[in-house]
Amino acid sequence: MKRLRLGLPKGSLEKATFEIFAKAGYRITVGSRSYVPTVDDEEISARLIRAQEIPRYVADGSLDCGLTGYDWIVENDVKVVEVADLVYSKMSLRPVKWVIAVPYDSPVKRVEDLAGKRIATELVATTCRYLKERGVEADVEFSWGATEAKPPDLAEAIVDVTETGASLQANNLRILDVVMESTTKFIANTAAWKDAWKRRKIENIKMLLLGALEAQDRVGLKMNVPDEAIDEVLKILPALRQPTVSKLYGGGWHAIEVIVEEKIVRDIVPKLKDAGAEGIIEYPLNKVIP
C-alpha cells in the first residue's frame, strides 16, 4: 500500500495543528510519550517532530510533506514546495513575529547600536543575515529556550518570537524592530510533489485544511421568513455567497440558509427577528470548501 509520510509539529503548534486536522476530518491520536501519531487514514504515516527540523527532513526526502513555520524554512535555507499558507498559530489565527528586543532601560535605541553586543536567539542564521543586511556585526548565539530571560546579564538583546507581546512586556523588554513575520506552511518534498499519487494526496489534505481554516470564524444560519419580509431580511444578511432561499410547503413562507462571520451574529439576529424572521438556528461549521 502506498503511504504518505507526514511530519507534524511537536511543541507549541502541536495542539492547534491537531485541532485543525480534526476539523478537516482527520482524527490524530498520540500517546503522552510517543512520537508516532496514529491517523485514521491508512494511507498516511505520521511522525511528530519539532517544527524547527521538519523543513530539513522534508527537503532531504525523509518526509514527503509536513507542517512547519515559514521562519524555519528560511532558517534552514532549504528547497521545498510551499503547498499552502495556513494562517494559524498556537494562540490565534494571525502570523507570529520574530522581533529584536532589549530591556526597557537599555541605552540601545536602534538596531545599529547592537554592534559588538551579544544577541541570544533560536533563529541564529536568519538573525545573522538580518544584521548583515544592515551592516551590523554582533555576537549572535544560540538560545536553548527561555530566551526572554537572558537580558541583561547573559545577553544585551534577544531575537524571539511573539504573538501578543505579553511575554516580552512581562520580562521588561521593548521591541526595536521586526526581523520577520511567519505563518504555518504546509510543505512538500520536491520529488514527492512530482509523484502523481503523492501530489494528489497532498492536494486533498491541503483542500481540507484550508476549508477547516475558512470555517474557523464562520457559522451557518437558518431561518423561516414570510414572503412579505424576504427583501428586508436579505438586506440584513452579509453572505459568503448568495443566500439559499427556498419555498416552504404550503406557501406564504420561505426558508433561508446562509454562512456568516460568527462575530456579527449577535448584532444581526435581533434585526432579523424584528424584520420578521422566525425559527432562527445558528450552527457551527467544520469546513468551508470554496
Short description:
By secondary structure, the protein is α/β, with parallel strands linked by helices.
Question: How does this model look, in words?
Answer:
The strands form 4 sheets. The protein has a 5-stranded mixed β-sheet with strand order 4-1-5-12-6. A 5-stranded mixed β-sheet has the order 9-8-10-7-11. A 4-stranded antiparallel β-sheet has the order 14-15-13-16, covered by helices on one side. The mean pLDDT is 92. Helix 1 (14-24) crosses helix 7. By secondary structure, it is α/β, with parallel strands linked by helices. The chain is globular, with a radius of gyration of 24 Å. The chain has helices spanning 14-24, 54-59, 70-76, 124-133, 166-170, 190-194, 196-214, 230-236, 265-275, and strands at 4-10, 28-29, 38-39, 44-50, 65-69, 81-86, 96-103, 118-121, 139-142, 157-162, 173-182, 184-188, 218-226, 244-247, 253-261, 278-284. Helix 4 (124-133) links the parallel strand 8 (118-121) and strand 9 (139-142). The chain has 3 domains: 4-90 and 184-214, Periplasmic binding protein-like II (D-Maltodextrin-Binding Protein, domain 2, 3-Layer(aba) Sandwich), CATH 3.40.190.10; 96-182, 3-Layer(aba) Sandwich (D-Maltodextrin-Binding Protein, domain 2), CATH 3.40.190; 218-284, Alpha-Beta Plaits.
The number of strands is 16
Main pleated sheet: 5 strands, mixed
Give the number of helices.
Answer: 9
Topology pattern, helix = H, strand = E? EHEEEHEHEEEHEEHEEHHEHEEHE
